[in-house]
Amino acid sequence: MLQPKPSLGPGGQGHWPGLLPVLLTLIGIAWAEVQPPQPPGQAQMPRALNRKESFLLLSLHNRLRSRVQPPAANMRRMDWSESLAQLAYARAALCGAPTPILTSDPRRVPQVGWNVQLLPAGLASFVEVVSLWYAEGQQYSHAAAECTHNATCTHYTQLVWATSSQLGCGRHRCSVGQVAMEAFVCAYSPGGNWKVNGKTITPYKKGAWCSLCTASVSGCFKAWDHAGGLCEVPRNPCRMSCRNHGHLNISTCQCHCPPGYTGRYCQVRCSVQCLHGRFREEECSCVCDVGYGGAQCPRCTFLSTPVT
Q1: What angle do CA 252, 253, 259 make, to 5 degrees?
Q2: pLDDT tens-digit profile, the chain (308 residues)
Q3: 3-state SS of the chain: helix, strand, coil percent to 5?
Q4: For the CA atoms of the chain, what is the radius of gyration?
Q5: How far apart are the C-alpha atoms of 155 and 113, rounded to whole Å?
Q6: Within 13 Å of residue 209, how many CA atoms lie on the same side as its CB?
Q7: Is residue 239 exposed (0-12), middle (13-18) or buried (19+ Cβ within 10 Å)?
Q8: Which residue in 72, 32, 11 sits closest to 191, CA to CA?
Q9: Could you give the CA distance from residue 151 to residue 256 in angstroms, rounded to a whole number?
Q10: Peptide bond preceding 190: is omega within 30 degrees of 0, i.e. cis?
Q11: CA atoms 65, 66, 71, 72: torsion sign
């Protein structure tokens, strides 16, 4: 488990007014870490952000993740998690302090990564804070898997951690001494910034966009300008679904029905019994043996009377 690493300033300038980086250097308090979330069953937290703010933060994360350099071959598309947003708000309400660590078996609890920024109230918007985290990437060397010039990059690496697929954020105004502050918190699952044998691993695999997506997320999401790409659960271009456990072939937009069902959507139940032939699943009909005919192949064509 990673421990919080306090930072005295941002890793990159981004598109910030000239005064802001100086202020952040003097008073910014930030860290990124991984720790388990709160156990289920606790009281519901109030919404930290409205739907518009949640949408903007999720869209910004996905847009930034889809444009990393060098290109990412396995970057997941993120979805909003209200439970993570509640965790983020709970931590923001504590002025960014860590939430209690679970005492239960950590193997049964998915890990959560944190990006936390504590700033004077009103100094920056949440979108600007996320942009600041991403700007730390200017100081990150993907080849060396480390920050250059002793800079802080852990916010950037968590933001672009390839396997993090769930996001929730919250903010809260609090006081540090006599100073009004605002805590900005985002929670990510699964969390990133992991080390192997004492060495920090790269947040994603370099390569052509979506070239290393796993089978479960083999779709490739692209922005409106077709820039970059994020691995996602394949969409359904056919705009249809198969009933009765039928399987939809997305390439042909046809349903492959289980035994006993037919129709375009596998909605027709078959009750045909072929007396002298084999059952044709695709058409819910019989293919009669030589010498027999009829819907269920009951009749011998060599005889004048049906076979009983």
Answers
A1: 100
A2: 333 343 333 333 344 444 444 344 434 444 455 444 444 444 444 456 898 999 999 999 999 999 999 999 999 999 999 999 999 999 999 987 775 543 333 444 458 999 999 999 999 999 999 999 999 999 999 999 999 888 889 999 999 999 999 999 999 998 888 889 999 999 999 999 998 988 889 999 999 999 999 988 888 888 766 678 999 987 766 767 888 889 888 778 889 888 888 888 888 888 778 888 888 766 778 899 998 988 889 888 766 555 55
A3: 20, 25, 55
A4: 28
A5: 10
A6: 17
A7: exposed
A8: 32
A9: 55
A10: yes
A11: positive
Query: What is the spatial distance between Cα 202 and Cα 186, in angstroms, rounded to a whole number?
Result: 20
Structure tokens at 203: 């947040």
Q: Residue 24 is encoded by which pair of tokens? A: 């952040």
Phi, psi of 117 (to 5 degrees): -135, 130
Amino acid letter, residue 225: D
